[in-house]
Design brief:
Layout (H helix, E strand, L loop, with lengths): L1 H14 L3 H23 L5 E3 L6 E3 L8 E6 L8 H4 L1 H11 L1 E5 L8 H23 L8 E6 L1 H10 L2 H4 L12 E5 L6 E8 L6 E7 L10 H15 L5 H9 L2 H13 L7 H11 L4 E6 L8 H11 L6 E6 L11 E2 L7 H7 L3 E2 L2 H19 L1
């Protein structure tokens, strides 16, 4: 009886959350989806949708592609990578001649399921992209690039447990190095330094602002996005548009109340994720990027376990602390030039979100990583 009463109390607290909080969350996702649809109606610009997988593909302009980027974005924004990360990913493609394959995903408490889903999407989309661009799929390298929660998903892919125990294969999670598992410690160790032609031919990881928070703390990211967006719109909105942007900060309050009330927890937990990275992470080259003003970044925790990992695995890891930016620096997009429907323009208006100069500098960091990893 007491337990049932407790559940009723928690449900009551969730129900007490203002209905407009939930409505604001729906409107944010709806607005991003409609902007995405507007881009598609305009031909998608330089982006195209892989109809077979749903991945967004961006080929380099004026360069012959020689490899691929697998990109996974942060919470909410990662569902619309060709909108939220357009400027950065387009620069990455054009600057270094790589085909960007961005894999959208829907938020789920089971991050392992999300990770395996984006890997499956990428593997097929990459195969099709290589065929379209005239690349040899058995030789074209993959660079995995993530932002925020996307970094965690890519870490789970690189630490996939079943890959280390696959009979007759013995490949690392990303199919890069021959591996075996030490029975005493459970740590995957290299059998030899030879590379294999595993799926994706992963040449390295470029992880930006790694975030491994629990369900309650992770809503801070949504709150920051909402408040930054509101700041950009200050004084420029009116009518329905003004009301839409004013309600965005309530997203975090609603999400935090719901997470706490339901006792939600991600799978794997933050601690389990780090332990997997410590014992199973497989990548020849890893670079962690941290911005100057980022209180959501958890790179230090990841760097510690990856340094321990590289004592037994033949890979390299380093970290860069940049003198600019914040957690949302990779995000820059604008509605300028899009043929928005009257209803959508009334809802969100014409606006730009992000720091174009920060994106330019981050793109230069990525280009430097590619040169280093390819040398």
């Amino acid at each position: 009886a007491p337990r049932a009463s407790g559940r009723r109390g928690r449900s009551a607290r969730v129900a007490a959350a203002p209905a407009e909080d939930a409505a604001a969350m729906v409107r944010l996702t709806t607005a991003l989806r409609r902007i995405d649809d507007a881009k598609s109606r305009d031909g998608g610009g330089a982006w195209r949708v892989c109809e077979a997988t749903g991945a967004r593909v961006r080929a380099p302009r004026a360069k012959t592609p020689w490899g691929c980027v697998h990109f996974v974005g942060g919470a909410v924004l990662g569902s619309f990578p060709d909108v939220a990360y357009d400027a950065w990913l387009s620069a990455c493609a054009d600057d270094v001649g790589l085909v960007v394959v961005a894999t959208p995903y829907e938020l789920d408490l089971d991050h392992e399921k999300c990770a395996m889903a984006v890997k499956k999407t990428y593997d097929e989309a990459r195969r099709l992209a290589c065929a379209k661009e005239g690349m040899d799929a058995s030789r074209a390298p993959t660079f995995r690039v993530g932002h925020s929660l996307g970094c965690k998903l890519l870490c789970l892919v690189a630490s996939a447990e079943d890959a280390n125990e696959r009979e007759g294969n013995g490949e690392a999670g990303d199919g890069t190095i021959d591996m075996d598992v030490d029975a005493t410690s459970g740590t995957a160790v290299a059998v030899s330094g030879t590379t294999r032609g595993g799926v994706g031919n992963v040449a390295g990881h470029f992880l930006v602002a790694f975030n491994n928070a629990d369900a309650t703390d992770s809503v801070k990211l949504v709150e920051k996005f909402a408040r930054d967006l509101l700041k950009k719109r200050a004084g420029a909105a009116s009518g329905a548009s003004e009301e839409f942007f004013k309600t965005l900060p309530n997203l975090a309050a609603f999400a935090e109340r719901a997470a706490k009330a339901a006792g939600l927890e991600f799978k794997p937990t933050p601690a389990q994720t780090l332990e997997r990275c410590r014992t199973r992470f497989a990548s020849k080259r890893v670079r962690l990027i941290k911005f100057k003003d980022d209180d959501l970044d958890q790179n230090d925790e990841l760097l510690e376990v990856l340094r321990e990992r590289m004592k037994v695995y033949p890979g390299r890891v380093d970290a860069r602390e940049l003198d600019f930016g914040n957690h949302l620096t990779p995000v820059y997009f604008s509605t300028d030039g899009l043929k928005l429907t009257p209803a959508l323009e009334k809802l969100v208006g014409q606006f730009a979100l992000g720091d174009a100069e920060g994106v330019r500098k981050l793109s230069a960091e990525f280009a430097a990583f590619i040169r280093d990893a390819s040398s």
